[in-house]
Design brief:
The complex is a heterodimer of chains A (about 150) and B (about 775). Chain A is mainly α. Helix content of chain A is about 65%, strand content about 5%. The longest helix of chain A has 25 residues, at about 110-135. Chain B has about 775 residues and is mainly α. Chain B has a domain at about 275-520. Helix content of chain B is about 75%, strand content about 0%. Classes of the chains: A mainly alpha (about 150), B mainly alpha (about 775).
Chain lengths: ~150, ~775
């Protein structure tokens, strides 16, 4: 879309939305939010960027094929569940550690990495659909497209 | 290590599978010689099973096994009595010879490794079939033999005839396998037993059960298809498309006998009833006669053997179902004799084909000097098949006549059938075992000479065994025939027939058979011409019928698919929403559980009212929109309004998600619309509009009523109480919704995100297909 205002605002907006999406993802365990919503916000951020600069720009900006991002997310989620094998507890049991980072106790958990997996799947899948649709009808779409 | 250690038997059972895995690698490194090495696997298994012979001959039963799924009372268990041990020895013994033979027969074939792998895998499956104790194991191995048989018949997959034959065999035996499965489930339900070894104790209950006949028919469905009984016989001759080692092994010596094995196994349980003693001899007899007559028509040596195999299987079924101990003894003797001589004959025919380049009996002759060893083996096998004294086949035939010959009309009838069938088989045996070798030398496509050791070892050993077993019948009876017959009738049986001729009815019938057979052999060409005329007059047989059946099936499924999947999105959506409306409304109507109208709130807050109005405006805008884009955006307005209402009622997570989903759906819908290049206006004729709006209103109404109703039913708070109580304490999270998603119901979420992922992939694939097609059309 050829709008100067949009083109000027879009990078800032996208950056803010992505940041916000991560914020929403991380606060999710205790406040409204979570991987699903975070992923949707991030996908919209990519959408905004795409509307302003075109699909190729988005693909270049995210470096990986969105489907690969989704795949990595699914893998991460599954692995988060599988960690429980090593502790002889049922699949998907939440496991927590509380390391001290810079003197602050930071609770980390497999449920968090699971949620990050959800986030990545949602971003990847939705962005991949949106980008594929947004692309000008051409001979090929996706990783084959290399200019 | 003790011979009866379960582990050793288990290894013996799985040796062939292991060898099957190694076969391709070994053949690649060692070439055709690998077959000798691979033959060690069945040979070792043979030795292991042979160690049980004294024990089983003493009337004991060897059992063993491992617990498999204890919660279902399922075990991986086997038991060896006379019946299964004889089969196991035949399978591994002939199997070892066949592997060697295949090494020579397919020497230099690029896929020899694969072929040997198939043969060995089949061997493992067949071995498992005959020694398994639990029904499930039996069924699994039964199906495995069908699958491996399919692979081997279709081995030469570049020929259409081979592919058709493979598919036909798979369809027929596969259907039979399903029938058998149903039969086994019936057996299990009626008797409460899941092990063959325990079945003999519950035979009486089964025979009196009202389900007996159904069970019998289902089991026979499995046995008759596998053992190529009329009218399911047609796949067996077609299966001769497979390379000869396969025909010798699967389609004569072992696999096709699985049905007979099953019938023998079930004889003490299901036998001794009128149904059993009518159905089995009847179909067996038809198969015997039609097999021999159809065999007479052939000029291809392999096909002649194939039809005699079918006839022999008919004879075995007939004897098994005849209903006397003598008949069972005869069946047992004939089964062993048949495996030996038919395996030898098939391999000899393969050697002729391999060396002379043809197996058409009319184009062969005078090979006796070129292939003396093969000739000797084929002759010995033919003599055994013809039932000439001294040979094991003679004992079998004597016993058959001893069993059948009696005064009553039924016995006379079946004796006549047996005499005619045996005489025809006699003629065919010599047509195969003698004709190609005698007479004037005929020029063959290849210059015939004796094949390598691997090609004549098998026929010589098997044919020689047929003679030895006949001469030393006492030993053979003690270790093999008597224990096997005892297992089939479930009481101690001692077979004592020997080659010393006893003057009596059986010997007289044997003589009649041999004379009749000689007469037919003498006038073979005439008999063949007559049979050809007769069969042609019959018209289409089950073989052609199979083709019609398959074609009809394909056509029917195509028609159904076209009807159910017309390929128009509007129809799919209409059907989906009509069903949705019905699913929502019908239960309410049928059960009469209408919700009561909730009381209107006294005070509607300004903001609530405002957003309700905005939502309504959104809907009206959708309906009145001039083009699609406006409609899509207006739908978004309505969605946002609803999201705000969620927020006002204290569901921030829900409302948050709703906002995002609405945004993205507007974006994606708009994109889809531009991608699909739809008309920007959505114009529908009036009847269409009426129909669509009716469906839409019905769906909306249904949802509203359902939601109202579910709000009015008492709410079970157990789950939400649990989540609220433990969210913080167990899962360390204050946001209950999120804790449910990532922790309490994490596995659900894992499934859901997998679906999201797959949906993404599917959409991507769809778009790709479309753009490819678009690109193609653009170029044209």
């Amino acid at each position: 879309m050829n709008s100067l205002i949009l083109r000027t605002v879009a990078p800032v907006l996208t950056a803010l939305m992505l940041l916000f999406s991560i914020f929403v993802l991380l606060r999710g365990h205790n406040e409204p939010g979570g991987g699903f919503i975070g992923g949707l916000i991030a996908a919209s951020a990519l959408g905004v960027y795409g509307i302003a600069f075109g699909v190729t720009a988005v693909r270049r900006a995210i470096r990986f094929h969105p489907m690969a991002i989704a795949g990595a997310g699914l893998m991460l989620a599954a692995l988060s569940g599988l960690i429980s094998i090593f502790f002889r507890v049922p699949f998907m049991t939440g496991l927590w550690v509380y390391p001290q980072i810079l003197g602050v106790e930071v609770p980390l958990a497999t449920v968090m990495s699971f949620d990050i997996g959800v986030y990545l799947v949602v971003v990847g899948a939705i962005a991949s659909i949106a980008l594929a649709l947004e692309q000008e009808p051409g001979p090929t779409i996706g990783p084959e497209e290399k200019h | 290590m003790a011979a009866n250690a379960p582990a050793v038997t288990f290894i013996a059972l799985f040796l062939p599978f292991l060898a099957a895995l190694l076969a391709p690698v070994l053949v690649r490194t060692l070439g055709a010689k690998a077959a000798w090495l691979l033959a060690l696997a069945p040979a070792m298994a043979f030795l292991q099973f042979a160690r049980f012979l004294p024990e089983v001959a003493a009337g004991e039963v060897v059992t063993g096994g491992y617990v498999w799924v204890p919660s279902f009372n399922l075990s991986f268990s086997w038991f060896l009595d006379g019946l299964s041990l004889t089969f196991a020895l035949l399978i591994t013994g002939i199997g070892a010879l066949i592997v060697v033979y295949a090494g020579g027969y397919l020497k230099g074939h690029p896929l020899q490794g694969r072929f040997l792998g198939f043969i060995l895998a089949f061997m493992g499956a067949m071995l498992g079939l005959v020694i398994s104790d639990s029904f499930l194991m039996l069924f699994v191995f039964w199906e495995l033999t069908s699958i491996t048989s399919f692979l081997m018949i279709g081995f030469d997959h570049e020929r259409e005839a081979a592919r058709r034959a493979a598919l036909q065999a798979l369809v027929v035996t596969g259907a039979g396998g399903l029938s058998l499965l149903a039969g086994l489930i019936f057996l299990w339900n009626v008797t409460g037993v899941t092990q063959l070894s325990l079945l003999v104790h519950v035979g009486d209950g089964l025979r009196q059960s009202p389900f007996y006949f159904a069970t019998l028919l289902l089991v026979l469905g499995g046995a008759f298809t596998k053992s190529a009984q009329f009218p399911f016989h047609f796949w067996l001759p077609n299966a001769m498309e497979a390379p000869t080692p396969v025909s010798a092994y699967l389609h004569s010596a072992t696999m096709v006998k699985a049905g007979v094995y099953l019938l023998m196994r079930l004889n003490p349980v299901m036998g001794d009833t009128p149904a059993w003693e009518i159905l089995l001899p009847f179909f067996g007899g038809i198969t015997l006669i039609s097999g021999t007559i159809l065999g007479l028509r052939q000029t291809d040596l392999k096909l002649m053997l194939a039809y005699t195999t079918m006839a022999s299987l008919g004879l075995l079924v007939m004897l098994t179902g005849f209903g006397s101990t003598y008949a069972v003894e005869a069946a047992v003797l004939y089964l062993v004799a048949h495996s030996l001589f038919k395996g030898a004959l098939f391999m000899a025919v393969g050697a002729i084909d391999h060396e002379a380049g043809t197996r058409d009996v009319t184009k062969l002759g005078g090979l006796r000097s070129a292939m003396p060893i093969t000739f000797a083996a084929a002759l010995l096998a033919a003599l055994s098949m013809g039932g000439v004294p001294l040979f094991f086949g003679f004992l079998a035939k004597e016993e058959i006549y001893a069993a059948l010959a009696a005064g009553n009309p039924r016995a006379v009838f079946f004796t006549a059938i047996a005499v005619v069938g045996n005489a025809l088989m006699f003629a065919l045996a010599f047509a195969v075992g003698l004709k190609p070798f005698l007479g004037r030398h005929v020029e063959t496509p290849r210059h015939a000479h004796e094949g390598p050791v691997s090609l004549w070892l098998g026929p010589v050993v098997l044919a020689g065994l047929g003679l030895l077993a006949g001469i030393f019948s006492g030993v053979a009876h003690f270790y093999i025939s008597s224990p096997m017959a005892s297992a089939v009738v479930d009481e101690k049986v001692v077979i004592d027939i020997s080659t010393v001729p006893h003057i009596g009815m059986p010997l007289l019938l044997s003589l009649v058979t041999i004379l009749l057979g000689l007469a037919i052999f003498w006038r073979m060409d005439k008999a063949r011409a007559w049979v050809v005329q007769f069969v042609d007059a019959l018209g289409i047989g089950p073989d052609r019928g199979f083709d019609y059946f398959v074609r009809g099936l394909v056509r029917m499924s195509a028609a159904i698919t076209r009807f159910v999947q017309p390929g128009r999105l509007e129809l799919y959506l209409t059907a989906t929403f009509i069903l949705l409306a019905l699913a929502l409304l019908l239960p309410l109507i049928l059960a009469g559980e209408w919700p009561t109208l909730p009381p209107l709130p006294d005070l509607l807050l300004v903001q609530e009212a405002a957003f309700l109005i905005i939502a309504a405006i959104g809907i009206i805008a959708v309906l009145r929109a001039k083009n699609r884009l406006t409609a899509i955006v207006s739908l978004g307005v309505q969605g946002f309004a609803v999201a705000v209402i969620f927020l006002l009622f204290g569901a921030p997570d829900l409302s948050f998600t709703q906002f995002m989903v609405e945004t993205l759906s507007v974006v994606i819908l708009a994109l889809v619309m531009t991608r699909l290049q739809l008309w920007s206006r959505d114009h529908r004729p009036l009847p269409q509009k009426l129909l669509d709006s009716t469906i839409a209103i019905a769906c909306g109404l249904g949802f509203t009523l359902l939601l109202l109703k579910s709000l009015q039913t008492p709410f079970d708070t157990v789950l939400s109480d649990f989540f609220n109580t433990y969210s913080k304490t167990i899962a360390h999270g204050a946001n209950v919704v999120n804790v449910i998603i990532v922790d309490f119901r994490g596995v659900d979420t894992l499934g859901e995100i997998s679906v999201v992922m797959i949906t993404g992939l599917a959409v991507l694939a769809l778009i790709r297909v479309r753009s490819r097609r678009g690109a193609k059309e653009g170029k044209l």
